[in-house]
Protein 1
Amino acid sequence: MEILSDRDEKLELAYPCSWSYKLIASEAEMLQQAIRDVINEREHKLTHSKNSKGGKYISMNLDMLVHNEDDRNFIYQALKAHQHIKMVL
C-alpha cells in the first residue's frame, strides 16, 4: 500500500479544469449563501450529497471551472474561512 502523503510528487493539472469541492454546513440555505458570497456570478453546479445521520449537517458538491492553481486554492481558502461553512474537502 502506498501512502500518498509520503510522496514528493506534486499533483499536475492542466488548467483550466473542472474542480469539485465537497462542502459541509448546518443548513442548505446558509451554504448556498456562502457560495454566492465567495464565487459571486461564476458558473457552477451545486448538488446535494447527503445529510448527517442526526440531521445536524448537510453536505453538497460544488463543481466549477478553475483557471489555475491560485484560483483553485483561493476558492478553497475563501470557502473554508466562511462562517457558514463547517468544512471543505
Note: The CA atoms of residues 48 and 60 lie 4 Å apart.
Protein 2
Amino acid sequence: MPKLLIFDWDGTLCDSLSRIVYCLRCAAESVGLPPPSELDARNIVGLGMVDALTTLFPGMAREQIDAMRDSYSRHFVEADREPSPFFSGVSETLCRLKDQGYLLTVATGKSRRGLDRVLQARQLDRFFDGTRCADETAGKPHPLMLIELMKEFECSPEESIMIGDTEYDLAMAVNAGMSSIGVSYGAHDSRRLSQYRPLACLDKFSDVELIVKNIKNNNL
C-alpha cells in the first residue's frame, strides 16, 4: 500500500519549462557559448545543473560551468519574480492526497536555494513533508534522493511512488527499486517514459489520485 509520494518539481508540478529553456539560452550566450536549441534544453530538464551543463556542452572547463551556473541563477531569479504556475489540477490534487494521509515529498534537480525560494514564494514551505535537491545529495538518475526520503519516513520501496515527467525521474525510481508514475505533459513524451515501465503515463496530473487509489485497492 502506498504511503510516500515523491514528486518532481519542474515539468511535473510546476509549468516552468519555457522559463528554464529561456534562462539556459541566456546563460550560454553570457559566457560566449551558442545557445542550445529548445529540444536540447528540454532534454536535460530534471538533471542537476552541473550534469545538465556538461550534457549540453561536453568538455566544458570548470570555470565555464561555474560562470554559466551563476548566470543561469541570476536570469532565473529575475524571470521568476512571479513564480511559474502549477499545472492544471495540481493544487487541488495535492490537497486531496494530503487529506487522505499520504506523505507528500519532492525530489528535484533544482538547487536547495532555488526550491526554498519558490516554496516560500508560494507559501508552501510547510506543505510538503520532506524535500531533497540534487546539490545536497546526488543528481538524477542516482537514487540517493529517494533512498534518503524513504529512510526519513521509514517507508519501503513498496510503500513509495515516484511521480515525474522525465526519464531521469523514472530511471531514478528503477534504481531505487520503487514504482513510478509518468506524466506526459512535461519535458519527455510517453514513448520515452514508457521504457521505464511506470504504472501509468498520464496526460493530466489529477489522474495521479486515481492511480494511487487503484494501487491502494490492489487494482493495479
Note: The chain has two domains: 4-15+86-216, 17-79.
